[in-house]
Each structure stands twice: as C-alpha cells, then as structure tokens.
Design brief:
It is built from 13 helices and eleven strands. The protein has about 350 residues and is α/β, with parallel strands linked by helices. The protein has one domain: Alpha-Beta Barrel (TIM Barrel). The protein has a seven-stranded parallel beta sheet with strand order 3-4-5-8-9-10-11, covered by helices on one side. Strand 4, helix 3 and strand 5 form a beta-alpha-beta unit. It is globular. The protein starts with 10 loop residues before the first helix and ends with a helix.
Length: about 350
C-alpha cells in the first residue's frame, strides 16, 4: 500500500517544512557534506534554456529557495559562460549557511571564449578557474569543485592532486566528478577523497545504477543527478507540440527532443501522470520522489525559473511511496522503448 504524506493542493504548506526534513549526506568521513534532500540546479537561469530571465527576479528566486530550506546550489563557469556564477554570487555570495558547487574542465581560448567540444583539466587551468570562480561567486571557498568532464589528456591522479592542494590552501572544501567512469572514480579517490559524483539520472536514463553505483557504495561517495527531470520532459512541461527557443536552448539539438522523439516518448509522461494522480502528486514529484527513494545518498538538483515549480520540486522530499509501487512503475517504464539518444555526437563522447 502506498503512502503519500502530502498532497499537491497543500504545497503552500509543504515547502515551508523543507528545513524539518531529514537532510542527506554526500560522501563519508572527512569528505562528508550534509545538505538538503534536494538541491537547486542554477544552469537554466542563464544557459541552454531559452531567453534569459530578468536578473532581479532570478536573484529573488534563489533567495527564496534558501528560505524554503535549500542548502545546496549548483553552477559552473561554462554556464553562460560566467554569468551563471555571477548570478549565484549576487544572490548567495554572502550566505555562509548554504553550499555552492561549481565546475572546471572546459577549454577556453585566449579571449576566454569556450572552445566547442574541447576540454582542459590541466593543473594551471584548474587553478585559474578556481580563482575566477571565487571572485564571481563572491565566496572565500568553493564548497564542491567538480571536474565537469573527464579530460583524456590529463590523468585522474593529476586532477585529484591539484584539487587536493586547493583544499589544503583553503580555497576548496570538497572534490567532485561529473560523468566519470568507475575507473576514473577509483583512481581519483585513491589520491583524494571524492565527496560526490554527478551524472544524468532519471527514469529514462538509469545507466548510472550499474555503471557507477557499486563503486559509489564501496567508497561511500554521494550521487547528484543533474537534469533529474530530463530537461523538463519528465515534469510534463514538454509536449509533442512544444517548440524551443532559437537561441540559448540546446534541447532543439538533442536527439531525444526532436518532434518525433517527443511524440513517441510521451507515453512515459502519461504513465507518470497516471501514477501521480493516484497519489496526489505532479509528474515532476513522481520523478523526483522516485530518485530520492533509490538511495539515501542521492541529492537531485532540479532547476527552474518559476517559484511555483521550485516549491513543487522541493515538496518531493516529503513523498513516501511503498517500494513495491516504485518497482512496478520502474518496470512499466522499462518496457517502453526510449526514442533518441540523450546527447549529440560531440557531447556523447564526453560522458560515461
């Protein structure tokens, strides 16, 4: 029998109680970081999600997220580039009660313009990114410093040693990896404890479960799913008739977001909607509640530019559904063929 502790109609009450929900710990031992059960992915406020929203309203939204109990915010230098970190810095820079994660690893030219498809995790570049990110974020220390994509030119041991030195210098607190294989995680962790690994993860993309979850459990490493709502698709906000902005929205270039793929995959959204209707949950809450149910060391980071969606997402931390019902839903989704890969050729070559 399922239990839905909170109903969608009570959402105005739900979000106010987020601070009372049991927090989650990413990493273990000296590398442990305790945060709210859901974080906030800030990327879409300035990057890859259409026209950039009015800055003051985004600052207010981030501050409101803190008021709702969120203590974990995710950004990166490549988002914008740079303006996402600046936004986070303006909104949260002086707040020592929250944790901010940012990332290094992409290559830039001499004019600090990103080089499409190129990576750079050289020690020199890592240090340069660290200093620049600290200034944009208006913080004394980066709480989690992720390698955004694994650079095949630089051994994982070199990257880990560089971040280890930055921690010793007081500029970074914790080390993270994004889209890293089990081998890279092991080699990195041997040099310096990895607190968290970030990868795409949702009901339409579950490869992390067999590729890296055993390694994460072995070493006590946390997991942060990015795009936990599959770039809005598993929130039910994208339909077969949806069109994407001509600029600053990468979804139109992703194989899974062609009109044909959206149409054929929409059956999955309908299944989540049916499940949600039985439990008083929205489509997004079903997806996020499922992710939270998988492991106690998972902290999804959904993003949004709307306060009502933020509160809806955070309410997922209160959802209680019987494990057998989650399994039934998983099995239903697994029987549905997924049309379209998650990335194009260049991006796909950079993920595990």
């Amino acid at each position: 029998m399922s239990v839905s502790k909170y109903k969608v109609k009570k959402m105005s009450v739900i979000f106010k109680t987020l601070t009372n929900i049991t927090q989650r710990t990413l990493g273990s031992g000296e590398a442990a970081l305790t945060v709210s059960p859901l974080g906030f992915g800030c990327m879409g406020m300035t990057h890859h999600r259409g026209p950039i929203k009015e800055r003051a309203s985004m600052v207010r939204l981030l501050k409101e997220a803190v008021d709702c109990g969120c203590t974990f915010f995710d950004t990166a230098e490549i988002y914008g580039p740079f303006n996402n970190e600046e936004l986070v810095g303006e909104a949260l820079g002086d707040n020592s009660s929250i944790f901010v994660a940012t990332k290094f690893g992409h290559a830039f030219d001499v004019n600090e313009k990103p080089i499409y498809g190129a990576l750079d995790s050289s020690p020199k570049r890592i240090r340069k990114v660290c200093e620049a990110s600290l200034k944009r974020l208006k913080r004394d220390v980066i709480d989690v410093f992720y390698q955004h994509r694994v650079d095949p030119k630089v051994p994982p041991e070199v990257v880990a040693e560089t971040v280890k030195d930055l921690v010793k210098e007081g500029k970074v607190r914790h080390f993270g990896l994004c889209e890293a294989s089990a081998e890279v995680i092991r080699r990195s962790h041997k040099i310096f404890s990895v607190t968290v690994v970030q990868s795409e993860y949702h009901l339409m993309w579950r490869e992390a479960e067999y590729k890296i979850f055993p390694t994460l459990e072995e070493f006590g490493i946390g997991f942060v799913p990015y795009s936990p709502l599959n770039r809005g698709f598993l929130a039910g906000s994208i339909t077969p008739g949806t069109t994407f902005a001509a600029v600053n929205d990468n979804r139109s270039s992703l194989p899974r977001f062609t009109p044909d793929a959206i149409s054929k995959n929409f059956t999955i959204v309908e299944k989540l909607k049916d499940f949600g209707n039985r439990h008083g949950l929205s489509v997004a809450q079903v997806q996020l509640g499922w992710a939270l149910s998988k492991k106690p060391w998972i902290v999804p980071i959904p993003g949004t530019t709307r306060a009502e969606h933020m509160k809806e997402n955070f309410a997922s931390g209160c959802v209680l559904i019987d494990e057998r019902e989650w399994k039934t839903l998983e099995d239903e989704i697994m029987r549905q063929p997924i049309v379209g890969s998650r990335y194009g050729k260049v991006e796909a070559a950079q993920v595990c």
